[in-house]
Amino acid sequence: MTAVGTAHRADPERATLGKAAGENFPVAPFFLPRAWRADLMAVYGFARLVDDIGDGDLAPGGADARLLGVAPDRAEDRLALLDAFEADLRRVFDGEPRHPLLRRLQRTVRRRSLTPEPFLGLIAANRQDQLVGRYETYDDLLAYCELSANPVGRLVLAVTGTATPERIRRSDMICTALQIVEHLQDVAEDLGRDRIYLPAADMRRFHVREADLATPSAGASVRALVAYEAQRARDLLNEGAPLVGSVQGRLRLLLAGFVAGGRAAVDAIAAADYDVLPGPPKPGKLRLLRAVGVTLRGEG
């Protein structure tokens, strides 16, 4: 085992936070105030860890399970880990959490007066991933995004002290769109986990079978389906984009980056002729910068 691998086994907090650099969008960019960056990284650490539990991507060695008090013989049981993680989250609000990432989060929760609901939503989404692998309708998928994505935007607004009902509504649109885009980028990877986030009703409409998603390259029907879902995501991003103009300063730049990242990702999918099966189409830096400019100017 490499020294890096040994360090990750010994320090699950560092292993989780170290993934921030590989995210599609900046987690806590340098231009934000230091206090915001620290709190956003604490929120990111929570979200990353719960996703890693749900996807079975924890650092090797079982350190996270031990920290959460899960017996060694259940260290691979994702539902047991999620239950233990939820119990430790509740200690963030009324006790002393065991996991170092949750102890870090506790400082943010107290400083920003955060509530348990968004965090519980993210846990519920990952618990649902263990039990539900298919979604019949687009509305079913939106209900999942309400748990898996929308809490993140609400937490950003809460940390920055800018939450209002209208901003939350716009933020939910953006976060749902970003989740849909990620699902489109990861069709092949998700299928490997026996999950399909393309609504079954839409698959039937475009004459797409599950077997069509397991091929090295997408056929015309799959491409048409991906194009349809990508347009839905683009429409949501456009509806949510006025959120950017409703705030000022460095927060405006951060939110513009989220919207622009989603738009650039949709553009990259389109540039790949909607063939997402060989691997996730990713936008280059130039495409992303152009999208940031468009978003800051309030153009759609």
Description of the structure:
The chain has about 300 residues and is mostly helical. Helix 3 packs parallel to helix 7 and helix 13 runs antiparallel to helix 15. It is globular and about 55 Å long. The termini are far apart. The N terminus is likely disordered.
Topology:
Layout: H1 3-10, H2 12-17, H3 34-55, H4 63-67, H5 78-94, H6 100-112, H7 117-131, H8 138-148, H9 150-159, H10 165-185, H11 187-192, H12 200-205, H13 220-240, H14 242-245, H15 249-271, H16 285-296
Helix pairs in contact: 3-5, 3-6, 3-7, 3-9, 5-6, 5-7, 7-8, 7-9, 8-10, 9-10, 10-13, 10-15, 13-15, 15-16
List keywords for this structure.
globular; mainly alpha; 300 residues; disordered N terminus
The gist of it:
The protein is an all-alpha fold.
Instruction: Report the strand count.
Output: 0
Radius of gyration: 19 Å
C-alpha termini separation: 49 Å
SSE string, helices as H and strands as E: HHHHHHHHHHHHHHHH
Stretches where pLDDT falls below 50 for ≥5 residues? 1-8
Q: What does the overall shape look like?
A: globular
What average pLDDT do the residues reach?
Answer: 92
Helix content: 55-70%
Number of helices: 16
Q: Major β-sheet, in short?
A: none
Query: What share of the residues does DSSP label as strand, in percent?
Result: under 5%
* Structural class by helix and strand composition: mainly alpha
